[in-house]
Design brief:
6 helices, single chain, 7-stranded antiparallel sheet, alpha+beta, about 425 residues, 21 strands, Jelly Rolls, 4-stranded antiparallel sheet, about 15% helix
């Protein structure tokens, strides 16, 4: 047992006088007072997404991990290095931009144009009898270039109409017309192309008038199974696939071309061929249809095929970045002048400077979490990666890694140093 001796004449008085400081006469290591001087020490921890509990956290965009050791007296935390795969889908169910709908409002009528073709008339009957019904489809999830998007849309538009005609022929038991439809490759009157000069999508039909329904929301029976995965925040700039195709949030009625001075008034791209040898005439009347007109819609804005330019990293309890949120008309925004932003919503904001498929490497994030007084200890970290609208990043089987810098305050032991010159 350690014995203490008080520096007092009267030992009994000294024991009750708490202003007197005892000293230990039996310990070989005297008590060293804290000088209130500290040394800043940098501690680095490398974290890999594949090191998480995959059973508990199947999606690598959110997981919790235990550090190799307790990190004590932490004064700040910063993200200093990272590597992430770029494999996002610009178009996906989660982004709510796969769905498109349209109507055929003025199908070509062969009887009023002197065309006596039974198959053509039956196609007209199928389209005319269902004019009040919408055609709807989903494009494939993924990342597109403009030409691929134009091809996808052309095929999806025509396929949607083909299915409608097929169903009508089957209900009428017109087996011969159904076989002819399949032999001709289905309905092929829609032509959708990309203007490489003005970077806009043009929608065309070689015989039938149509309406692009850009006001349609997500309430579609072909999307019901995916509604639970939609983004968590409203976005006025993203109202579905039409917004990415450069269309306004208003329905677009196709305009028609007519025959003038023995020539055909049709849309043309003067910069060159769309298809080899077409001299820019990408939309011509359907062959064999006397008196037919072409119909087209030019998207008013440039096509947008890029995905999110930034994503956010959250560390539970370590967030240090305030973030604004999309404006929405509500009782809160109409009756107060307060912001709907979030304080300390994230730990880092990371740029996505590349398109799929690639890998991004970067370093030196400016934001950092500061603690005063220093945080006693850190042993576990809970991570979440998300976009600004709250939707998670989907990395699939791709892994990523990042490096965290912990600034640690180490108490200094006071030491008096004296330089003694060499003896002569």
């Amino acid at each position: 047992m350690s014995a203490f001796k008080f520096n007092s004449v009267n030992e009994n008085i000294g024991r009750n006088n708490f202003t007197n400081i005892p000293y230990n006469v039996n310990m070989t290591h005297p008590l060293i007072p804290n000088s209130q001087d500290y040394m800043i020490y940098k501690k680095y921890v490398s974290i890999h997404s594949e090191d998480r509990d995959i059973i508990k956290y199947p999606n690598s965009s959110e997981f919790e991990i235990e550090l190799p050791e307790d990190i004590i007296n932490v004064s700040s935390i910063r993200l200093v290095q990272w590597t992430f795969p770029v494999n996002y889908n610009t178009f996906s169910v989660n982004n709510n931009n796969l769905y498109f709908t349209f109507k055929i409002t003025n199908p070509y009528n062969p009887s009023i144009n002197g065309v006596s073709d039974v198959f053509a008339y039956r196609v007209f009957e199928a389209l005319f009898s269902t004019m009040d019904q919408r055609y709807e489809f989903l494009i494939e999830e993924g990342f597109y270039n403009p030409v691929q998007m134009a091809t996808e849309l052309t095929n999806k538009f025509n396929y949607a109409v083909t299915r409608r005609i097929q169903s009508y022929f089957i209900s009428k038991k017109w087996t011969d017309s159904l076989e002819q439809l399949l032999f001709e490759g289905g309905y092929t009157r829609f032509v959708i192309v990309y203007n490489e000069v003005n970077a806009k999508i043009w929608f065309g039909n070689r015989a039938d008038g149509f309406l692009l329904i850009n006001e349609a929301g997500i309430a579609s029976n072909i999307l019901n199974e995916a509604l639970c995965n939609l983004k968590s925040l409203p976005n006025s700039s993203n109202y579905g696939l039409p917004s990415f195709l450069g269309l306004r949030r208003l329905n677009s009625e196709a305009i028609s071309g007519s025959t003038l001075n023995n020539g055909i008034q049709v849309p043309r791209f003067f910069y060159g061929d769309v298809s080899p040898g077409d001299n820019g005439y990408w939309l011509l009347p359907y062959s064999g249809f006397s008196g037919s007109e072409v119909y087209w819609v030019e998207a008013p804005f440039k096509i947008n095929l890029m995905g999110e330019s930034y994503f956010y990293m959250e560390l539970a309890g370590q967030n240090c970045i305030d973030e604004t949120k999309p404006y929405n008309v509500s009782e809160f925004t109409l009756t107060t002048n307060q912001t709907n932003g979030v304080v300390n919503s994230s730990f880092a904001k990371i740029a996505v400077p590349s398109t799929p498929m690639s890998q991004i490497y970067d370093r030196e994030q400016s934001p950092y979490k500061f603690y005063y007084p220093p945080l006693e200890r850190i042993r576990r970290l809970k991570l979440k990666l998300r976009y600004h609208d709250g939707s998670p990043l989907i990395f699939g089987v791709f892994n990523y890694t990042f490096l965290l810098e912990f600034s640690i305050m180490l108490p200094m032991i006071p030491r008096d140093s004296k330089l003694v010159p060499n003896a002569p």
